[in-house]
Design a protein that fits this description.
By secondary structure, the chain is of the alpha/beta class. It contains 11 helices and 13 strands.
Length: 451
């Protein structure tokens, strides 16, 4: 065993381990009474005592920490491994192990943990206020006349949106409302752009977009001022913020959420190729339908013309006029025969008169014959005129009471199997077969009920 000797004049104080650790502890606590340290929590432990023990680390180093239960009461969250925090602490030493440590007196979240809590709290608040309700969502136009885009004028998102709109729907003009999409003043700029687009009222739909990023990068779209601006917008808004996995408050308030800016452009517009295909298909359908309707109307017109020709009063009048002409010719023939007979009789009487009577008797007879001839002629003419009048009245009455005319007005004639016209319900019994004649055709019917 080696032994070491020290110079006797060496009067350095010799510490025990306990004394050294105690003095170091006091030195640290007196020198670093209060420090602020930021880092990531690891090795987080909660024993039965309720105190928290953890390490706080950054990329190059770590330090052990403790936070006693009494200091935890003011915190609004419970940290865990991976939480990014800022602590206010005293520097101390754990004497039993000689470990240097921080005694945390307060703690607040930093980074995405804090933002995520703020996100959930605002989401809950706005949902309770009705900003996410479906009944407030506005309907997107099928064929927008003009499209507004609210995003950064220099980012990749605006280029993606313009490319998609040019490819799918090049006929619609695009109005860009440039705005900041990141930073502390971005939320106010975005809200102002939405209000400006509504005030100018130039667009049928608005695309609100930006490219991907961290929660901090997307945070302006989680601000309450932006949510209320979207909700108050009279113009439908499509949100296309970040990537498919990113959700912001703006997505919940918007009338339609798209997973990316490009997808938002696709939702806002119809595809011109699909439109052309639909138009071609519709044009063919309309042409075929018009041809079918034209052919049907031509057939109906031909049928109507034929029916009108058969039932037209002019044709019936021509037939009755022909019949009247026949009656007139018959009467003339009868008149002629009668006159011939009278003339023959006169000639015979003249001969007799010449032979049997004096001249005065003959003249009287001639006068009497002349009177009879005139009277007979007048009687024949009167009779002929009366017959003509009766015939005309009969023709008019016949047309008025004709069953065909009645059928033309929408009525029908019911007959029994024996072809007797049915005037009363007592003529038939339930189960009897009857025929109903219409203007065109006849129906065979069975009596099911008699009232």
């Amino acid at each position: 065993m080696k032994s070491y000797e020290f110079d006797e004049q060496d009067d350095q104080t010799v510490y025990s381990v306990s004394e050294l650790n105690n003095d170091v502890k006091l030195l640290l606590e007196d020198t670093f009474t209060s420090v602020f340290v930021e880092g990531e929590i690891s090795n987080f432990i909660v024993p039965n005592s309720g105190h928290w023990y953890f390490s706080l680390k950054d990329a190059n180093a770590q330090v052990r920490c403790a936070m006693f239960r009494g200091s935890q009461r003011k915190l609004g969250f419970t940290p865990k491994d991976g939480s990014h925090v800022l602590i206010k602490a005293r520097v101390s030493l754990y004497e039993s192990r000689g470990d240097y440590q921080l005694i945390a007196e307060s703690m607040e979240e930093r980074g995405e943990g804090k933002l995520q809590r703020q996100f959930e709290a605002l989401k809950k608040k706005l949902a309770a206020a009705g900003l996410f309700d479906t009944e407030h969502k506005k309907v997107l136009p099928l064929f927008p006349n003009q499209i507004g885009v609210i995003t950064s004028s220099t980012g990749a998102a605006v280029r993606d949106i313009l490319n998609v709109l040019k490819r799918r729907y090049p006929c619609a003009p695009i109005i860009l409302y440039p705005t900041l999409v990141q930073g502390t003043s971005a939320a106010q700029k975005i809200a102002f752009a939405i209000e400006l687009a509504n005030h100018r009222n130039e667009c049928d739909v608005i695309i609100l977009a930006r490219g991907g990023g961290s929660l901090e990068d997307l945070w302006p779209f989680n601000e309450e001022i932006v949510a209320h601006a979207i909700y108050k917008s009279k113009i439908p808004i499509i949100s296309g913020i970040g990537h498919e996995i990113d959700f912001t408050i703006a997505d919940f308030v918007a009338d339609k959420r798209a997973p990316t800016p490009s997808a938002a452009a696709e939702i806002a517009t119809p595809d011109k190729t699909e439109l052309l295909q639909q138009l071609t298909h519709s044009s063919r359908q309309i042409t075929r339908q018009m041809q079918r309707q034209s052919n049907t109307m031509k057939q109906q017109l031909r049928f109507t013309q034929k029916h009108l020709y058969q039932q037209h009063p002019k044709r019936q009048l021509i037939e009755k006029a022909q019949r009247l002409d026949f009656y007139e010719l018959t009467l003339v023939q009868l008149q002629t025969r009668l006159l011939n007979r009278l003339q023959s009789t006169r000639s015979e009487l003249d001969s007799k008169l010449h032979r049997l009577t004096p001249i005065h008797a003959i003249r009287a007879a001639e006068n009497q014959a002349t009177l009879h001839q005139q009277s007979l002629l007048n009687s024949v003419l009167t009779t002929l005129h009366a017959k003509e009048t009766q015939l005309a009245n009969a023709a008019a009455t016949l047309n008025a009471i004709s069953p065909l005319a009645t059928l033309t007005r929408g009525y029908a004639i019911a007959t029994t199997k024996a072809a007797r016209v049915i005037h009363d319900t007592h003529q038939v019994n339930v189960g009897d077969e009857i025929e109903v004649r219409l203007r065109q055709g006849t129906l065979g019917c069975v009596v099911e009920k008699i009232d």
